[in-house]
Amino acid sequence: MSNGPPTPSALQRRIPNLLTLLRVVLTAALVAALSVYRFPGEEAWALPAAIALFVVAACTDALDGYLARRWNAITLFGRVIDPAADKLLVLGTLVMMASPAFLPAPGSGMALERVVTGVAPWMVIVILGRELVVSSLRAVLESEGIDFSANLSGKIKMVLQSIGVPAALAVVWLVPAESLDVGGPARWTLDVLFWTVTLATIASSIPYAARMLAHIADQRPAREAAEDLTG
């Protein structure tokens, strides 16, 4: 009787990685769709198309990890590319949502002077900065053999982003343009939504930073002992 986990077949090892690569392809299609849209209605098909692509891509994120764990098919390729594909999906979409394509058109009569999605450029920068910092910390610690898998706060952050992005696109698509103007309930909804996403993203970096600081503190006695010997 075998004591270890079952060995995955070649197909089982490939399927999670193929789903990850599919997410990259879906992200490219999503960005292409949003690149032709202009608020409030030019190429309006792009919004439902982008929503559908984002939802399918987000589902592949949940599915590839589940299958990799179920089949014991976790690979180095998946550990590296899967989080990169996640970041590409979210950040690529947020960049497009913060672009001038979502600005009210001149002469539209809207008082709003920023993008209707609620995604400010500084929010994209903050979210990008968080991802770069956490990825750097992960690279350092995992190079030393320390597990740096996503914790609960990171998973909550991803869930909020995965809900917030398509929800905001759906509001822009379905709500009349005048309801997205200053003071409207849809405007407040979008602003609160992405402030929540941004703050949750910032907060999710705290446990990772704490793990790095704890690792540094653990290494300090060894370094001090080595310095005493060489001194």
Word description of this protein:
This protein is an all-alpha fold and 231 residues long. The chain has one domain: CDP-alcohol phosphotransferase transmembrane (TM) domain (Four Helix Bundle (Hemerythrin (Met), subunit A)), CATH 1.20.120.1760. It is built from 6 helices and no strands. α2 packs antiparallel against α3 and α3 packs parallel to α5. The termini are far apart. The model has no long low-confidence stretch (mean pLDDT 88).
What's the arrangement of secondary structure elements?
Layout: H1 10-35, H2 46-70, H3 76-97, H4 121-143, H5 152-174, H6 185-230
Helix pairs in contact: 1-2, 1-3, 2-3, 2-5, 3-4, 3-5, 4-6, 5-6
Give me some keywords for this one:
231 residues, mainly alpha, Four Helix Bundle (Hemerythrin (Met), subunit A), 71% helix, 0% strand
Mean pLDDT across all residues, rounded? 88
Task: Give helix % range.
Answer: over 70%
Taken in chain order, the helices and strands follow as HHHHHH
Shape: globular
Query: Structural class given helices, strands, pairing?
Result: mainly alpha
Distance between the termini: 55 Å
In the predicted model, the low-confidence regions spanning at least 5 consecutive residues are none
Q: What count of helical segments does DSSP give?
A: 6
- How would a textbook summarize the main sheet? none
- Tally of extended strands? 0
CATH architectural grouping: Up-down Bundle
CATH topology: Four Helix Bundle (Hemerythrin (Met), subunit A)
Count of the separate structural domains? 1
